[in-house]
Specification:
CATH architecture: 3-Layer(aba) Sandwich
Order of helices and strands: HHEHEHEEHEHHEHHHE
Shape: globular
Structural class: alpha/beta
Strand content: 15-25%
Helix content: 25-40%
Number of domains: 1
Distance between the termini: 49 Å
Number of helices: 10
Largest sheet: 7 strands, mixed
Strand order of the largest sheet: 3-2-1-4-5-7-6
Length: 259
């Protein structure tokens, strides 16, 4: 493997499953408490998939999109009032937001024990930190990428997505504000792949497996993908029409900063 810490994101691959990835964000929006005055930050905004829902739910507020990927920000276009290219681990708010909303982004950022208190501290009094992250790393869809990559190609690269356990978030965040923490498992029907492969492979290679694949040569990528396709079918069988029923667990939390 080569160094895979610099991840290049492809909006086209990501947007193929935009609908499935959007539903948890909508569910998180529906769980928001009343907000104080202030702007709204979409932290890890990607191509702007949730910007329309944020504007509809929170009309009249300045909407700021933050993402490390120039490709994603270019795809977001004018979906936000302001766009900021920054690493989430280093980003600092220029004004106290009413809401920091992060949908499926913080799993790419380490050091949650330091990051989350800092984000909370940047909010306006009564402001809300709202986060959704995949909690799927132990499922076959994700575990098989890691296992096969190590067997076929050597040590895994740094930068694979990781999250804390729910109890760890509870102990970290409950002293800092009013915490609500929950999980939901979504059963998604993934559409057939144009190349005839397993849709779970297509779904995961655009996000979770991306840093693994980018650390490999083309030959290693082909060998790993072929091996993954061989074993994934037993965990996620393909239906007659080429689709797959795919259970995917996500973790949510909101924290209200004390007024």
């Amino acid at each position: 493997m080569t160094d895979g810490t610099q991840i290049s994101w492809d909006p086209g691959t990501y947007n193929r499953f935009r609908g499935q990835r959007l539903r948890p964000a909508i569910d998180l929006l529906r769980a928001l408490p009343t907000l104080p005055e202030g702007c709204v930050v979409d932290l890890g905004c990607g191509p702007g998939a949730i910007s329309g829902a944020l504007r509809a739910l929170l009309p009249g507020r300045r909407l700021v999109g933050v993402d490390a990927s120039a490709e994603m920000l270019a795809d977001a276009g004018d979906a936000y009032d302001d766009l900021v290219q920054a690493d989430i681990a280093e980003w600092a708010a220029q004004e106290a937001p009413a809401l920091i909303f992060s949908n499926a982004a913080l799993q790419w950022v380490g050091g949650h024990d330091l990051l989350l208190p800092r984000l909370l501290d940047s909010l306006a009094p009564g402001g809300v930190l709202a986060v959704q992250v995949p909690h799927q790393n132990n499922a076959p869809s994700h575990r098989m990428w890691r296992t096969l990559a190590e067997e076929l190609c050597g040590p895994l690269p740094e930068g694979l997505p990781e999250v804390l356990k729910p109890a760890q978030y509870h102990h970290l965040l409950s002293p800092l504000g009013v915490l609500s923490l929950w999980e939901t498992e979504y059963y998604q029907v993934l559409p057939p792949c144009e190349d005839g492969g397993n849709p779970v492979r297509r779904f995961t290679e655009g996000t979770y497996a991306r840093p693994i694949l980018q650390a490999l040569s083309e030959a290693e990528q082909a060998r790993l993908i072929a091996a993954y396709e061989e074993v994934v079918r037993s965990a996620y069988p393909v239906s007659d029409n080429g689709s797959v029923l795919f259970p995917f667990r996500r973790m949510f939390f909101t924290v209200i900063r004390p007024a």
